[in-house]
Amino acid sequence: xxxxxxxxxxxxxxxxxxxxxxxxxxxxxxxxxxxxxxxxxxxxxxxxxxxxxxxxxxxxxxxxxxxxxxxxxxxxxxxxxxxxxxxxxxxxxxxxxxxxxxxxxxxxxxxxxxxxxxxxxxxxxxxxxxxxxxxxxxxxxxxxxxxxxxxxxxxxxxxxxxxxxxxxxxxxxxxxxxxxxxxxxxxxxxxxxxxxxxxxxxxxxxxxxxxxxxxxxxxxxxxxxxxxxxxxxxxxxxxxxxxxxxxxxxxxxxxxxxxxxxxxxxxxxxxxxxxxxxxxxxxxxxxxxxxxxxxxxxxxxxxxxxxxxxxxxxxxxxxxxxxxxxxxxxxxxxxxxxxxxxxxxxxxxxxxxxxxxxxxxxxxxxxxxxxxxxxxxxxxxxxxxxxxxxxxx
Length: 393
What we know:
Elements: H1 2-24, H2 52-56, H3 74-87, E1 91-95, H4 98-109, E2 115-119, H5 124-137, E3 140-144, E4 158-164, H6 176-185, E5 189-193, E6 207-208, E7 216-217, E8 221-225, E9 239-243, H7 246-258, H8 265-275, H9 278-297, E10 302-306, H10 316-322, E11 332-336, H11 342-351, E12 355-357, E13 366-371, H12 373-376, E14 389-392
Parallel strand pairs: 2-3, 2-4, 4-5, 5-8, 12-13
Antiparallel strand pairs: 1-9, 6-7, 8-9, 10-11, 11-14, 13-14
């Protein structure tokens, strides 16, 4: 009886083993390549090599290196190619967030003693990351005024210039063409945070020059928080790093691989799905913002309304020259008159019914956030009124 039981258990185990093997290595498979509206989703950590030749003849610098999930799949490479096309670039890397993309640029390019110049209105997490690099590795951090190109004084140690168009929170539109020309004249790399422009207000690799209409200028690197307009749903975190130069791309790609940076195939598919209507959403956000600006300008509570399309805004003329589409992202800021105190600003934000307190933008929900300008700016801001600032996005 005991012997019979053991034999039965052995046969059952053998059958289960064969079943598991058959499921993991099926003899019959449906064809895996068909034409569909959306790109198929590939989810992969392990990628199976066809044979030893395929294993040995691949290299990390290949345009499509199918060797491991962190390097890429057809789903992730498809999105990267789409973003490169939108921004007018040749190469694109994807990162888990816009901040991750920014940090990759800083980590790949900056060494001890290198100077990095940042605008006074820089995205604050980028500022915080650079401060950490300064404290830990001896990177030298320099600030410049977004409204004054002459406030930049490059030296032999200057390595990287960060540009924001338009600047965070206060939305100054810098003289982008002159910034690029000045950096190139001193051999300094330019990195643009292009989340606001999104490749739709203007293309960062084909920028109009105000003095020479036939000359097109290009930044070296464009970083984009795909979390915003490309995603459009307020539910995906992702970033991109676009370039034209092959060697620069490989330098960034190497750091990308060394840091194990990777993105989800499902998230990439969601962003790819949203790209077909991104331009329509961007245009509608812009139109909505213009209507909001007219309302805000009619209110007595505000000392200043900030948006590049307003003629009195810092950099309005540069916006007209660069953004020939006439577009701008759906963000507008207001500065309350100095008589309003913090408690009243908070009451204002809490009382709003269709705008909600929250970070990010470019999604389906209207958001607000309040800021103390004196706490976040280091250089003089004569073009800005005193008072608490609220962004509407």
